[in-house]
Amino acid sequence: MSLPAKAAPRVFSGMQPTGNLHLGNYLGAMVRWVEMQASHECIFCVVDMHAITVWQDPEDLRSQTRAVTAAYIASGIDPKRTILFNQSQVHEHAELAWIFNCVARLGWLNRMTQFKEKAGKDRENASVGLYAYPNLMAADILVYRATHVPVGDDQKQHLELARDIAQKFNNDYAKALGAAGFPDGFFPLPEPVIMGPATRVMSLRDGTKKMSKSDASDLSRINMTDDADAIAKKIQKAKTDPEPLPSEVAGLETRPEADNLVGIYAALEGSTKEAVLRQHGGAQFSGFKKALVELAVSRIAPVNAEMSRLLGDPAEIDRILADGSKRARAIAAPILDQVKDVVGFLRG
Ligand code: AQP
Question: Which of 21, 51, 85, 132 has the fewest Cβ atoms within 10 angstroms?
């Protein structure tokens, strides 16, 4: 079955308010979001329903939701041009997720590596929500019939699942969709947009582990709320190896920590690893780290300052989210209605 021929490009993505956003979220996803905003219709979400798949203190969840919203805006998301909202205010996400729970297969979810990582050894004690997370993520995207999803490399598998769900829905309901005027299927197969030198920023303490909000060590990540001293301390303490930097990218292959710092430098500078190594190849880490601190502080400090200013007026953040939610619902509600008709639900 072919894609719906007239699927207009539409971008959707989201982040969880589970803690401070870090450099991985910023370079892996947010920078792309800001770029795409100039050329695409964009919908960006603070995915608070995903956040509660692991326990969140309610007061912390509220303040983190505002903090993530402030981080979006401080990084360059314009809430007038772009739809910016928190997921739980648009109930269509949850309704479509239930329908997708009935489309997706257990075997598909059993293959999800993020569930295995997050549930760890105590699988039996993980929430059902954590297991079904990818189905809600598919609903987040497809309730807008979004076509492009800028994410970090870790979300690739979930995006493939969203495509499988879209395809299976289109196949399962092909007859009803044909009768409803969608002979080529209803949902587009959303494309991941994974680009740039920092699609997977690694922990500063272990170059083989993803930088993550929930890592027990704060030294493992640079938070978007860190001040210049904290950024300098974390980069100075970042794990490295004893060799100087190579002059070719191939020389980074077996050196995960060096590869990570060079990738971070390139992404912050808006260049490539090749360009960074042309400039710094042969340098010792002490010198390179000094240059990296300067660059990181110059990029993060203005975002940090703007976030603090925005968080001084929480009522304004709540107003922006309420406005975005209204605009999001205006798109999602008619799409969900069409899905309900196709599935065979009676509507008043
Ligand atoms: N280390 C990373 N490198 C590049 N991109 C990353 N992203 C996350 N970590 C990295 C991208 O950021 C977006 C939002 O992620 P999220 O907050 O929804 O959830 P996550 O991927 O689970 O991020 P964390 O930090 O690992 O959160 P916790 O610890 O709470 O699970 C996504 O586009 C993601 O790819």
Answer: 132
